[in-house]
């Protein structure tokens, strides 16, 4: 079992305050986040961007393992994830993560590729974590 950790420190009100994120690995090191980085495109990160990065990375790795299991080796898997934050009653919720994949995988036909990609989308641990609609637009090069 793997346990990964991160820490958030927030100071001030929700709208006027700001926070810092630090991850166990040091990739995030006192990284700024705030209302403005979340809702007004100010420089810094936000929880949805971090979820998008996690989902894109998790899906790419899950697909690489699934392709390997099928005897296939990808030349490249390029994954974008777009996470939607929508109003929900008096608050917000992550409603969707839209995955877009461009894959270069020699020796696979479209039908087999689509089935493998679908399984990876459903089996990815971050997909399982999200209580949101997850879509996949997959393109096989060649």
Automatic annotation (TrEMBL):
UniProt name for this protein: Osmotically inducible protein OsmC
Entry's Gene Ontology molecular function annotations: peroxidase activity
Biological process terms in GO annotation: response to oxidative stress
Superkingdom: Bacteria
Source organism (scientific name): Enterovirga rhinocerotis
Pfam families, alphabetized: OsmC
